[in-house]
Write a structure and sequence with these properties.
9 strands, three-stranded antiparallel beta sheet, alpha/beta, 4 helices, Rossmann fold, binds 1-O-pyrophosphono-5-O-phosphono-alpha-D-ribofuranose, globular, six-stranded mixed beta sheet
Length: 183
Amino acid sequence: MKLDDVSADLEEVLLTEDQIHERLAELSRQIEKDYEGETPLLVGVLKGAVMVMADLAKELRMPIEMDWMAVSSYGSGTQSSGVVRILKDLDTDLIGRRVLIVEDIIDSGLTLSWLLANLRSRGAKSVDILALLRKPDAAKVDVEVKYVGFEIPSRFVVGYGLDYAERYRNLRGVAVLAPHVYA
Ligand code: PRP
């Protein structure tokens, strides 16, 4: 779905498809250098990371493996609580592996900080994070993110994996949702 297809639902476009792909290409060149001669395991966090994982994986000019986790933050409403439950675990043994967690967005940082500790405890050689988007204003915990696509303001954004009530994930860009949609 293109941004134009739902323009009435969007207040402001933050990132177009081209901008995202260009940035993923830059990050891919960096990743190729950092993991030269190795086969990193990319771990996508469902469901938001599906788009970034697919485009990043296609852009990378090196062998990789992919695996997926689904986690759920306990807590009320839309806020992460930091208490995380695994809904779907990895199929891959992490011992000795170099792992790159792939996320769509880091907001409070609570999910990723938990995930980082969890995956590190499984004997991986290294665990790093790539997040397409980061909301620096919203950070409750400091998480080291090795590869950041874009810093964005703390507004309600949808698209490119990010949803509102499960909709807009298939939008090709990232945009601020118009308040009338959720009012
Ligand atoms: C989003 C996003 C991260 C998390 C970030 O997932 O994909 O996993 O929230 O928030 P935090 O930094 O405040 O912890 P969500 O729980 O909305 O699930 P989804 O990916 O299935 O939409």
